Amino acid sequence: MHVLIIHQNFPGQFRHIAGDWSGLPGWQVVGLGHETAPGMPGVLWFKYRLHRPPRKEQHHYLRQMERAVLHGQAVARALLERRKRGFRPDVILAHPGWGETLYAKDVFPDARSSISANVLRGRRGGHGFRSRVPSQFRRPRPGAHLECATYP
Question: For the chain, how many structural domains are there in total?
C-alpha cells in the first residue's frame, strides 16, 4: 500500500498514523508539506514551495482563495515531480484547509482520497476507525477514532 499524506505542516495531526502505517510490512508512507514544515523522522517526505506570495492588493474577499490556489498549484508541481520519478499513491490522506488538495486528483486520478480527516488519539494511544474508512485502513484500538469522508 502506497499512502501519500499531505499537510501544510507535515506531519500535523497525521504524525501518529504516519508512524504506525510506515511500520507496516508492504506499506510505504510518503509525506508532503510546506517548506517550513518540521517533517518526521522515519517517514520519507518532501516539501513544496509557493512560486509567489498572495498579492496584497487582492480584494480581501478573495485573499484566502488566492492563497489556496497558490498552495494547490505548488502541491501539484511537487506531485508531478514525484510522478515523473515513478511514485503512484494508492491513497491520498490530506488536510484540505490550505487548498493543498485542489489539484491532487488531477495528478493522481486513480488514487483514492480521504480529505478532511481528523485523527484523534485515545488515552491509551493508537487509532480506531469509524466504519466509513475502508477495511484495509482499519487498525482499531480502544479509546480513539478517525473520522473522514472517503471519495473514489
Answer: 1
